[in-house]
Amino acid sequence: xGESPAFSLQAGEEFKTRTGSISISPLLLSPGVALLTHLxxxxxxxxxxxxxxxxxxAEERLLADGHDQVALGVGxxxxxxxxxxxxxxxxxxxxxxxxxxxxxxHPNGGLELRPELxxxxxRKLG
Length: 126
Ligand SMILES: CC(C)(COP(=O)(O)OP(=O)(O)OC[C@H]1O[C@@H](n2cnc3c(N)ncnc32)[C@H](O)[C@@H]1OP(=O)(O)O)[C@@H](O)C(=O)NCCC(=O)NCCS
Fold this sequence. Notes:
This protein is an alpha+beta fold and 126 residues long.
């Protein structure tokens, strides 16, 4: 990997590098359980470990901030992301899938909201 996100993260709720980003939701899933959203790596830099590194960096930040678990949603049609999360120790919660809204940003600046059914995955921190 040509860039270490751990050294180029910006403080704040969105961790953003030149090659990808991940956000920490201002909402908690439940007390102590933080919610990560919008993990994305630019298409031409995928499969080089950047997504895993961004996830790791966000988890470290949440642990340092005193959270003991982290949760995230993954669309039923996204097996690539699901593999990444399972490899990092995430497991599906026992309450079933959840109807969410995916925000799609179009190149012309337009925003589209699409209903998306998600699995919710959870991992203990530390
Ligand atoms: C899901 C996503 C964030 C993954 O990002 P990524 O940077 O490609 O993730 P990684 O590189 O850490 O892991 C992806 C694969 O590359 C492999 N890999 C990691 N480092 C590698 C390296 N140096 N050389 C070869 N392969 C490598 C991983 O083992 C993994 O393999 P797998 O596909 O068999 O599981 C990216 O595909 C993406 O932005 N998708 C669109 C948005 C999206 O779906 N986000 C998730 C929402 S829940």
